[in-house]
């Protein structure tokens, strides 16, 4: 686990993952498809040794369905009436556009006129 990595998860009771653990950050679409069975992983990096310079490496890989793919709860991940779908169906593209708007809500485009 990289120094300073913090996934903010309470599922591991605040314990550090084992050495050489592979951490896979799952995205919001997988959480929607599985009705929350697999939660989207919150993660961040915290500087733990102030004043010490450390190198940190990551290898991001993003895989997404086509823009028009419908993202809705898989039939095996819900049951009525006890466990109904928690998320409304949405296309992959619309979901991504909503996420971009949330992430960059404070972005101001400079006019080129």
What secondary-structure arrangement, pairings included, does this model have?
Layout: E1 5-6, H1 28-33, E2 44-45, E3 70-71, E4 90-91, H2 92-103
Antiparallel strand pairs: 1-2, 3-4
Kindly describe this structure.
With 113 residues, the protein is an alpha+beta fold. The chain is built from two helices and four strands. The protein has helices spanning 28-33, 92-103; strands at 5-6, 44-45, 70-71, 90-91. The strands form two sheets. It has a two-stranded antiparallel sheet. The radius of gyration is 18 Å and the shape is extended.
In short, what is this structure?
With 113 residues, this protein is α+β, with helices and mostly antiparallel strands.
Largest sheet: 2 strands, antiparallel
Mean pLDDT: 79
Q: Whole-Å distance between the termini?
A: 48 Å
> In terms of structural class, how would the helical and strand content be classed?
alpha+beta
Query: How much β-strand is present in the residues?
Result: 5-15%
Low-confidence stretches: none
Radius of gyration: 18 Å
Which sequence of SSEs, written as H and E, runs from N to C?
Answer: EHEEEH
Count of alpha and pi helical runs: 2
Helix content: 10-25%
Lateral strand order in the biggest sheet: 1-2
Global geometry: extended
DSSP strand count = 4
């Amino acid at each position: 686990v990289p120094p300073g990595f913090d996934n903010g998860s309470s599922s591991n009771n605040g314990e550090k993952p084992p050495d050489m653990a592979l951490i896979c950050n799952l995205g919001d679409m997988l959480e929607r498809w599985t009705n929350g069975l697999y939660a989207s992983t919150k993660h961040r990096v915290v500087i733990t040794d102030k004043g010490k310079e450390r190198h940190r490496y990551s290898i991001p890989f993003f895989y997404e369905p086509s823009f028009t793919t419908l993202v809705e709860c898989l039939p095996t991940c819900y049951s009525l009436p006890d466990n109904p779908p928690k998320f409304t169906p949405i296309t992959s593209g619309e979901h991504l556009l909503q996420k971009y708007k949330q992430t960059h809500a404070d972005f101001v485009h400079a006019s080129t006129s």
